[in-house]
Amino acid sequence: MIVALVDYGAGNLASVRKALAHLGAAVRDASAPGDLDGADAVLVPGVGHFGATAALGRSWRSEIRALVARGVPLVGICLGMQWLLDGSDEAPDLEGLGLLTGRAARLAGAVKVPHVGWNALAIARPSWLLAGVPDGAQAYFTHSYAAPVTADCAAETTHGRTFASAVEREGVAGVQFHPEKSGEVGLRVLRNVLDRAAKG
Fold first, then answer.
1. For the chain, which domains are there?
2. Do residues 55 and 9 make contact, with C-beta atoms less than 8 angstroms apart?
3. I want to staple 20 with a disulfide (CB 3.0 to 4.6 A). Which of 25, 57, 111, 175 is the partner?
């Protein structure tokens, strides 16, 4: 089982790599589109400004779309999840990958932004990504922008407003929280990715 971890300079990959290795996956850092060849699953992590996703240009997009078309699971984490959307208000002129519906928008209301810490997942519908994760489970967040609640939403979380904390459409999925920092709940999510990949 080979998981390609997309490295586009937007965050430390070490904790994600460690969590996957703990689950028995072989992890390959992908710093160029060709590094995705032969991967059983592709993870796009990331923290920080949406502008960092500009590094994922045409060749990355083409290769990732080809893998998705072949049934390889694609999962985004935090900023990586937002990149799977149409785009983000944080960098309005920069397009997302567009495999999931909606645009990320800044959290608002009488709350502290960024949203940092533990919060609850309200399961919105059955999901392979969240199989075995109970409604109300706690996960660890750190972000200022979030995805809207659409038909792709698998779990919701509220911080100032309700946003999609997990999204899924067929083999494309994402989480706004950090599974690598979310204890057993996070490991369950990553294990579900490996299980999906194993089914081909």
1. 2-198 (3.40.50.880)
2. yes
3. 25
Could you say which of 115, 143, 159, 178 is catalytic? 178
Q: Which two tokens stand for residue 178?
A: 């950090």
Closest listed residue to residue 1, CA positions, set 25, 35, 36, 28: 25
* pTM greater than 0.90: yes
Who contacts 156 (Cβ-Cβ below 8 Å, separation ≥6)?
121, 122, 124, 149, 162, 163, 164, 165
Give pLDDT, residue 12. Answer: 76
153 and 124 Cβ atoms separated by less than 8 Å: yes
Assigned token pair, 189:
């999510």
Residue 78 falls in the annotated catalytic set: yes
Q: Alpha-carbon distance 200 to 184, whole Å? A: 25
Q: What is the mean pLDDT of each run of 10 residues along the chain (200 residues)?
A: 94 90 95 96 95 97 97 97 98 97 90 95 98 98 97 97 97 98 97 93
Active-site residue, selected from the candidate residues 63, 78, 115, 143: 78
